[in-house]
Amino acid sequence: KTCETLGVKENLCGECEALPGGEKGFRLYNAKGITFDGYTFDDSNNSPGSNQVLNVCMLARYGNKGDYGSQGVPLTSSLALTAAGTTKGPHFYGSCVEGGCGACSGNAVLPAGADWRMLAIGNTCGGDHDLDKAWAGVECR
Hints:
With about 140 residues, the protein is of the alpha+beta class. The chain has helices at about 1-5, 50-60; strands spanning about 15-20, 25-30, 40, 80, 90, 130-135, 135-140. The protein is built from 2 helices and 7 strands; from the N terminus they run H-E-E-E-H-E-E-E-E. The longest helix has 12 residues, at about 50-60.
């Protein structure tokens, strides 16, 4: 119920909670790691406000192929949460330079309606079998 109340359409296998102090946004957390469609998110290029973090926030808020509507892109203060003990697994490719690879979640802010299932898995634009430590969560503002 909390995810629905916070306007989260895709909980990424995490639990939803409000940000402290009444701050606008939400936090998703899973001590073992958040995932979408069985894949984690790249453990590189996930600094606060990075394209990859903003895209994961939009995936959570609007769902895969979501319509961003008037809400738009999350604030650049959004951040990935890491923690000891998360599992390693195949991941969406996010460690690219901005404007480098269209199949990378770190390439640019994905447009409304983007399909995460079309993004590369692993550490290259063409995909590979790399495993990364999962993010424990994300705070989206």
